[in-house]
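Hello Y.,

Per our agreement to keep a running log of every chain we model this quarter, I'm adding this entry. I've kept the format consistent with earlier entries: sequence first, then predicted structure.
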Amino acid sequence: MEKVIFRKPPPPLDDLGMHDRNLTGWSAETDQSKFTPKFQSFAEAWKSWKFVICFAGHRLMIKKLGLKESQLKLHHVDRRSKNTNATVMNWIHWSILSAFFAGLTAILAKIGVTGVDSNLATAVRTSIILLFAWAIAFITSKPVAIFEFSARTWIFLILSGIATGLSWLCYFRALQLGDASRVAPVDKLSVVFVILLAALFLKEKMTIQHLVGGVLIVIGAVVLAWKNSKA
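Predicted structure for the entry above:
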C-alpha cells in the first residue's frame, strides 16, 4: 500500500510577494535593509531625471517652433496684456462711462447757460473741448498722422463736426428753455435715429431686437418728457 504524505501548505503571500512575515522569521530590520533602500534610490533617481526630461522637452518645443526663449517670454507677456486690456475695458464699459459723462454734461450745462446766450455758451464749451481733445491726442497719439488722412476721411470728419456743432447748439437752447430731466431723455432719441440711419446708409441689419429696443426708447422718452398738468 502506497504511503500518502501530507505536506503543509505554503504560507500566504503579502502584497510584496513575500511569505507571511510571522511564518518566515521576518523582522523590521530585515525588511528595511533589503527593500527600503531600493525604493528610496528609485524615487531619488526619478526626482532627478524628471526635471531633466521636462527641461529637454521644453527646449525641443522651442527649437521646433523656431523661437528663442526671450521671444517666447515676450510673446506670453504680450498675449497676457492684450487679454487683460480686452477684459478690463471693453465697449460696454466705455459706453457706460460715456452715458455717465453725458448726464453730468446736461446738469453742468443747465447751470452754465442760465442767464447767458446759449450760442455763446456753446462756443465757450466747444473751445474747452477743442483744447482738451488736442491735449489727449498729443499724449496718446502721433499728431503728425493727421497728414496721412485721406480726402474721404477729411470730408466725413468735417461733416461730423458740423452735425455735432448743430446738435450742441440745439441741445443748449433746449436746456435753456426746459428742464434738464426732460430735455436729456428726448435728446437720447438719437439712439433711434442712429439705428434707422445705420440701416439706411451703412446697410446694417435691422433685427427684432433693434425694433423692440427702439420702440421702448421712444416710449421711455415720451413718458419722461410728458408734463403733468397737475404739477
